Amino acid sequence: MSPILSIRDLKKTYANGFEALKGVSLDISEGEIIALLGPNGAGKTTLISIACGIANPSGGQVLVAGHDVVSEFRKTRSIIGLVPQELTTDLFETVFNTVSFSRGLHGRKPDPAYIESILRELSLWDKRDNALRELSGGMKRRVLIAKALAHQPRLLFLDEPTAGVDVNLRKDMWQLVSRLREGGVTVILTTHYIEEAEEIADRIGIINHGELLLVEDKDTLMRKLGRKQLAIDLVEPIDAVPPHLAAWQLELSPGGTRLIYDYDRQTNHGGITGLLSAIEAAGVRFADLSTRQSSLEDIFVSLIGEQA
């Protein structure tokens, strides 16, 4: 099956010479949820802007369902829904009219029943006759989502959709994204919230300085780059790791009260059971054991730090 979004060697250089994108390539399958992580200025919003036809690329190509976003703008834009970072609509218009207008703007026939279903899904039905200026920040964010869904897109871009909103809206958004995927909608999400990507994404892409550092299945990424540690708290501090334990490449904490063992990467010396036996044989007594696995945030910080 052809990808619904295909990005090939995408470049964007601004008039001042700044390279926002440096040859990004990416394929996204229909029905997939992919999260793009990266710091401010990494190129996330630029990539989305080009894919949605808002900005022109300096090089490369973007295809949406096989259609070029530059030469077939109207066709591709009818397939795409976009939830931008900022509210860009008439604050004096009502919620219902705003969402309905967005549907018509993309060439869809009026469908009040469908608009009602979206507004109910997003807990906006009771606010349908309110002007946008009367809504809270979280409600305005919900309206942006409703607008993006009004014309029933196959591909939905969410650019920092839950930035600055409360936890309840964030969780509602996660549930909505899962339901959209069940309906066949493909979702590309940019976020600063690592737990958001960890919660809902199938694949994780990490972008920095205009380069896509990796794109990986979330679970595979955690297995490949996640760090599994065993912490061994000692009864008495030691000055150095005993020579008999050198094969395990242990780290000694400051103060000498804890030994750290990366057991996922070092499995050639009898594993944890063998290590504990060797510690006892070396005359080192321990009081407690605990394990820890690195999170997606640890992996993200590590990758960004390596590129800086």
Automatic annotation (TrEMBL):
Residues 5-234 form the ABC transporter domain. SUPFAM superfamilies: P-loop containing nucleoside triphosphate hydrolases. It comes from the Bacteria. The keyword Cytoplasm does not apply. InterPro entries: AAA+_ATPase, ABC_transporter-like_ATP-bd, ABC_transporter-like_CS, ABC_transporter_ATP-binding, P-loop_NTPase. GO terms for molecular function: ATP binding; ATP hydrolysis activity. Keywords: ATP-binding, Nucleotide-binding, Transport. PROSITE patterns: ABC_TRANSPORTER_1 (PS00211), ABC_TRANSPORTER_2 (PS50893). Pfam families: ABC_tran. PANTHER family: ABC TRANSPORTER ATP-BINDING PROTEIN. Belongs to the ABC transporter superfamily. This is ABC transporter ATP-binding protein. The lineage of its organism: Bacteria, Pseudomonadati, Pseudomonadota, Alphaproteobacteria, Hyphomicrobiales.
